[in-house]
Amino acid sequence: MRTGGPEWQFEKVTFSREYPRNVVTKLLVERAEHGGWELVRVRISPDGTRRVILRRKIIRAVRTA
């Protein structure tokens, strides 16, 4: 049985500079509300590309006797 902290699933998402900030915000809120994702990091490149890292807990079912 694992006794450490929670296990996380990570996802990297890239948004092109053509997407306005409010559209990116809506897309990330949608993922958070319906997929259980939370924001870890946003990096905006000099060319305007947004690189986003999301995470969510991995919930494992524990078999009972």
UniProtKB/TrEMBL annotation:
Top-level taxon in the UniProt lineage: Bacteria
InterPro entries in the cross-refs: DUF5703 (IPR043758)
UniProt-recorded name of the protein: DUF4177 domain-containing protein
